[in-house]
Amino acid sequence: xxRRLGSPLALALALAxxxxxxxxxxxxxxxxAEAPNGARVWLRLGFRKGIQVQGSQLPERFVKSGPTEGWxxxxxxxxxxxxxxxxxxxxxxxxxxxxxRHYVRWPELESVWLMASLFSxxxxxYDQLQKANPKNPGKLRKGDVWIIPQALFSxxxxxxxxxxxxxxxxxxxxxxxxxxxxxxxxxAFGEDAEGRFASYHLRKGEALYSSVVxxxxxxxxxKEVNDLAQAIAKRSGIPDVRGIxxxxxxxxxxxxxxxxxxxxxxxxxxxxxxxxxxxxRTIRVxxxxxLNGVRIVLDAGHGGVDVGAMANGVxxxxxxxxxxxxxxxxxxxxTEAIVSSTIRYPDYGFxxxxxxxxxxxxxxxxxxxxxxxxxxxxxxxxxxxxxxxxNDLFAAFAKKGDAQKxxxxxxxxxxxxxSAHGTMIYVPGAAAVxxxxxxxxxRGAGVLEMKRGGKVSFTGKxxxxxxxxxxxxxxxxxxxxxxxxIPVHSNRPIRNIIHRAGRNxxxxxxxxxxxxxxxxxxxxxxxxxxxxxxxxxxxxxxRYAEALVKGIRAYYRRS
Length: 559
What we know:
Strand content: 15-25%
Structural class: alpha+beta
CATH architecture of the largest domain: 3-Layer(aba) Sandwich
């Protein structure tokens, strides 16, 4: 049987993420300062926490509201106190009428995001700060000088910036198909000595990595996005990607374009249009607000020794598990849908948690018998058993119920380029789903569900319909999230392929799922500090679950 969690190897695997997290966070620094009332006050700069001020000696007007005991966060300070805190924490900075010369003192604690957060009011303005300092590297070094222009000052510091600087574009209000068509219309195709390319003129507020690479290619991985941005800049004769002005012509090599933006006559574009036509023909299945006769399987990604993506003090597994449990609870309480989960954490069962303090290293795929994701077997076994289990449940349901009322949702949280913000949804691209597949018995871990769920076969029509239904559901779900003011990834939040490590692929859980409608939802981008902070908040996770259930109800209600 191999080693259990109590063995030295399994224990090391279980503790490894915690050790990594502990090593990743440097200790905060503290500096003394004199408050306007003459009191001696300590200020603290923490890793990814920013500035905190010892509150007991502060003047009452320095704190917006609430008690002043303990450490007061920078966000809770009054405008006067924020200016005082910045000048006290960064005593070497030179404040002038047209901006601030900020000297990096603690590169292990500071970041471009933190500077944007402190001086402009929101970390998401970091790309604007980088544009103002095109010669500075993104990785801070002690002694570096960063110019904070007055145009980026927050209202609290006497400027005009309120929150995130507006990056909205005319396409933002369009649905998915209209948005992609509008983006395509902004391209022109040409050819030079280096080959065919699509040309694009950057608009005001757009950046090469987000508005070109992440929009027009399938790349979202941080390194791959940066690498392609540099390649496009070189092809376009741009010496520095952070000094690009509006109107700049950029050339995107055709081989890097996502399917919807391929040249006319290409097979990829033809297949894309076939799917869009199928979406327009597709009629949604009606089930009513109580979701009567709907079979739903919820899959929380990773789990056990596999904690998934990690960034900003958040790890994927426990947080998406909690969201899936909240969705399960709401569905069971408020609807008549039949709901199952693919995975269970024995320590918590199907309960929700407001406090998540450490990774949970005990998880079971709910097959017969249960499969412990404890590191004894390759993680790929756990991944495959999820769709095997779900397909077995759907097969049993289809004997008495309507197979068109089957829904599979896999919950994840990604680690993308930090400019990516909010939810992204992957649907099963028809071209990436095989006509047939059988999981080898050696990969099925000997579970009973292999008899009915280990083999799949799809006709070409079924693959088109699965993508069409899934796109319709994803579109409605994103609208539901936006109505609840939950961030959604800009540019193309619905995608039918993942590009990682130089290859395109479709996750097995939706590639082989037999559900009529199936999606993989990336709840948040953990490398985006705002997304990570949201995921830590139980109120956000509850709000997300409520919005998702509203999206499910809307999908099964005929319009």
